[in-house]
Write a sequence for this structure.
DNA sequence: TATTGTTATACTCTATAACTATA
DNA sequence: TATAGTTATAGAGTATAACAATA
């Protein structure tokens, strides 16, 4: 509790990596909190968004998209399926694959969750003007494109 | 491996939180990799920087500064002490407190580690012009000040 | 033999809470 | 009784590897 001076961490804020890590962690935990009322976490939110944008896909494809091991998809999809947000159907052409598709309920919850996500984003950027927000997003996208642009974005710490 | 289309995650990049989380994770893991040759991780790097800027302090004060529980400091400082980068001295006025101070070796390794950190930052921002880099840092600092500015910056996922 | 999805295991990280020594 | 530091424990998250079904 005995933090010193005004702000000893100020010296760290010169490092953009520090700012990115801190804001990333804040944003992640807050996103999870915002999404919790809808029964999903930010990974599942991303999953629903991809399904919505790219159409149905196998768990392998999805795990490739999200850059996570297939084993991790199981619980994620289990939970979405239990809540009726996605449907798992054995592909007729290749019965090994699970074809995952968004249900009507899934599309509905995605719409509501998306609103919450946008609301939180607005709150995060409340101090920036509209042009500044666009500038920030554009700069971050350029950095992202260079360093994570190749294919799926991996965590792989 | 069977990631679909050009980049299905593109739909996620409209969310600044996604970009921040991904870049934060990338930056963190890369920082650890850059610092590993010096025998420290990014937390210890931050610790050394704070000691350098604010002078010696107790473990409590440091843990307050960094926003982590005192128990976590122990191993962090143990390791730094083993390598001779900091000295732990029982305070004479209150023998419960450990006064942590930077050693000469600590100051030397900090200087070298800092160069590596700056080099990585330059690489991260390689596609941005000098004014753009300044703009990005300034925007991030303003967002940080609003949402994490109060005191110590907590992780607390 | 290779691949999809699943399950089991093991490892890392971290917070919480007991414990000690000082005050 | 309260506080600084330490140790112990327990939980979450996650990757890796074994496994079953299908190709």
């Amino acid at each position: 509790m005995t933090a010193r001076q005004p702000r000893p961490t100020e010296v760290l804020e010169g490092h953009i990596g520090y700012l990115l890590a801190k804001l990333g962690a804040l944003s992640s935990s807050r996103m999870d909190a915002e999404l919790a009322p809808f029964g999903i976490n930010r990974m599942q939110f991303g999953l629903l968004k991809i399904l919505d944008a790219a159409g149905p896909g196998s768990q392998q494809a999805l795990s490739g998209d999200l850059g996570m091991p297939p084993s991790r998809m199981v619980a994620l999809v289990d939970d979405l399926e239990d809540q009726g947000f996605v449907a798992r159907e054995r592909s007729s052409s290749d019965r090994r694959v699970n074809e995952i598709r968004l249900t009507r309920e899934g599309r509905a919850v995605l719409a509501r969750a998306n609103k919450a996500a946008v609301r939180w984003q607005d709150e995060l950027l409340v101090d920036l003007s509209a042009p500044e927000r666009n500038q920030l997003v554009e700069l971050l996208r350029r950095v992202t494109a260079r360093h994570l642009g190749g294919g799926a974005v991996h965590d792989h710490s």
